[in-house]
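For the sake of transparency, this paper describes our internal protein records without simplification. The remainder of this section carries one protein's record, kept here as part of the documentation:
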Amino acid sequence: MPTDVENWKSEVYGNEIREHLMEFAEEGWESIPEDEHDAWFERFKWWGLYHQRNGQESYFMMRIGTPNGVLKPGQAEVVAEIADEYARGPAENPEFGDAYVDWTTRQSIQLHWIRLEDVPEIFEKLEANGLSTQQACGDSWRNIVGCPVAGKDSAEFVDALPVAMDLNETFKGNDDHANLPRKWKVSVTGCEEGCGQGDINDLAFEPAEKDGVKGFNVRVGGGLSRNEPRLARSLDVFVPPEDADAVAGGISALFNDHGDREDRYNARMKFLTDEWGTEKIRRVLQEDYVDFELQTAGEDLRDEYTYNSGRNDEGHHDHVGVHEQNDGNYYVGLNVLVGRMGADDTRELARIADEYGSGEVRVTQRQNVIVTDVPEEDLDDLLAEDLLDTYEPDPHTFMRGSIACTGTEFCSLSIVETKNRQVRYARWLKDNVEVPAGVEDFHIHLSGCTASCAQPQIADISLRGMKTRKDGEPVEALDIGLGGGLGEDPRFAEWVEQRVPADEVPGAIENLLANFEEHREGDESFRDFVERTDEETLAELVEPEETSYEDPYMHNTKMTWYPYADEDDMDASPAPARADGSPIPSDD
């Protein structure tokens, strides 16, 4: 039988949701029938709105899609203005204040504390400046990811930016692909570093060459979510750039017709690939979904991939820092710790991009931002800007490698607090732990649950939210995984330690790195060390320990209305609230 979600979608879905959304916004939060909340909240996702968690009723997270991470001139300033005016909630975050922008691991943007009543004005402002929330969430094509400097990379093999933009133009708002069995994540990359991270996407176009033609090989069925990660698998198909939309549309239609609509857990391309195998997928694609002969795969560049590989102990491959473009100008990548930037700082970012570059800003899959098109003679002045004291182009290893998802601050799925905790972890590690010799990149990813929004399975150290008991009291805890990475030979982290109390995790990392330094062979990378060491020994090298680090979020933050509020009990929540912020009494 179809799931509840499928039944809701059969009644109203896709572009038609907008009319209903606008009606609810005009009439106010209370106009949504209480017994229809789940149905409408599921539908609203298609237009980029996620209802926030218990205790935050009437507030939404808004996701803005930026294909391939590209913000055109002026758009970063618009995002800052919207965050400043509309994304202020009833309580402040102690690290980030009360208005901020989240840059995500899928090169898009998230804002929080959005009121339903403000959505029409926000949409008008976004769309007047070429931005949209359409299909940023929901069971459809999500934000297309790729190399964040596509079209500007001096070492680019093939320019993937036109392909990514064409796919976005073709499939966003396309009714034939608007109601898929589940989310549909697509990566397009043309660089030799592999920074599109195609291995963890439902559909990946990766740089390849065949018979002197530069184009893409096709892989399907990647993903990290839950406890079922998969690496994308080759379809043995080569696609020249001009055929990418036809092949992508064919595979999307195949998933639409054959994906599981009776079990949302199994409704992902990775499970259809498990069930059918790539040979059957290729055969059905050829027979039923494309009208030209598919070419066999060309010679790919996977043996050159370096992005997030965990194997590169010399040099960086995350686009942070100063880099020359293919036109002689430069781009400057800024490290944004855990991907969160205040509204005022985002406005400053926009100013700097406009003053020193073309006004364009790009977002990376490591939650960082890039200012592009900077002439060489303006680099020194750009690097002297005060903003770069906070968002450094040459950050410390532990700051540069930190990624965190939204966590219990807003997410109903998360089990633990993440953003502020990872900020505290990174600062403590920077001040107290020596980075092993020769290690320049070291990735620590903190995800609040198994949904893997922080991509923990592809980090040097993977942290995943759990609960445990300590001194007889329930506390927040983390599973620890080691040695994940993409690159030429991708692998997922090995989960070697479970339910470590959160305040003992920095000590565990400190001891692990000391043990790594002692037992490594020569200058081998951490990932290579993990690969050659058995799981039992790895577990012994992780020694959880209390240190000078103190964690203020050890209590069950999932059961608070807001983890950082002075009075955080559910009974103290001001939600739900009317458009003016006044609470709605429970008897209304």
Summary: The CA atoms of residues 122 and 272 lie 38 Å apart. The chain has a mean pLDDT of 96. Residues 244-258 form the longest helix (15 residues). DSSP finds 17 helices and 21 strands in the chain.
